[in-house]
Amino acid sequence: MRVLVTGAAGRLGSRVADVLRGQGHEAITADVPEFDIANFPSTRAWITAAQPDFVIHPAAWTDVDGCAREPDKAITINGLGAGNVAAVAAELGVPILYVSSNEVFDGTAARPYLEYDRTQPINPYGYSKWVGEQAVMAANPRHMIARTSWLFAHGGKNFIQSILNAVGAGKPLRVVVNEIACPTYNDDLAAALVKLMESGRPGIYHMVNEGYCSRYDFARYVLDRTGHTETPIERISTHAWARPSTPPEFSPLQNLAGKMIGVELRSWQGAVDAFLEKEGLRTED
Ligand SMILES: NC(=O)c1ccc[n+]([C@@H]2O[C@H](COP(=O)([O-])OP(=O)(O)OC[C@H]3O[C@@H](n4cnc5c(N)ncnc54)[C@H](OP(=O)(O)O)[C@@H]3O)[C@@H](O)[C@H]2O)c1
Hints:
alpha/beta; Rossmann fold; six-stranded parallel sheet; two-stranded parallel ribbon; 41% helix; globular; binds NADP nicotinamide-adenine-dinucleotide phosphate
């Protein structure tokens, strides 16, 4: 298939383009500044000229705290911008896969969120991604919405690297215990998104590595797998760590819809091990 990938210079977009090419698809990549999803005429001209068979749309403003400071900008890019991309795909009669977030939920559930649970974002980034979901569904009936969370990717800023950098610099570690979600390996997610696309089945999906943990557990696991079993981590609460955006406390996603069509990801622990192995950071058990 000829697939247009937005946000293709980003962590997920670049990996999706690689997976597509590796599997014999044609990937047409687009990103700012040449391609700006917040500009409808330019988005329309760009996508129409590309003549794709399918659009995968990971582009977004992903600075969660920045979104809290400038909520209108967040809605313009993540919400209305997603609607622009979906509308042009609809004009061309092609499906769109929009990448969304666990932050569309409020984090008060007593169990992991299922695909059609009630959404209720509690911060401007989550709200902007929710607006994106609504705009995509309204503009293009041939939509797939793939929510994910806590991405860790090779070659970019990520939680694992931040923890290991802090240890390397001899800094004391303080990590929150009351933010719980699903760590997700960028490589696993990109492969799953391509499978979803190939399935041709519209709907909402939760595309995360299996299982869930707190930020503290995530950090502890990384340290234990990299030879830092003796390094202490202070447990703190999100309430003790003021930031512009308030994350949902309990927002694990459960993948039911994807499993039904054979699209599922391995456990988050298995994914972290694979990531560390590839980075040459894994020590023997
Ligand atoms: N990272 C996570 O933990 C996480 C969790 C849940 C969901 N998600 C979702 O997953 C998707 C991919 O995330 P990611 O981590 O790969 O993000 P990323 O690395 O920040 O990539 C996003 C890309 O979109 C581009 N972009 C920003 N504004 C744009 C605009 N107006 N028009 C066109 N492109 C624009 C960015 O360019 P600039 O860098 O120049 O701004 C960047 O290249 C996003 O939709 C995000 O909401 C991510």
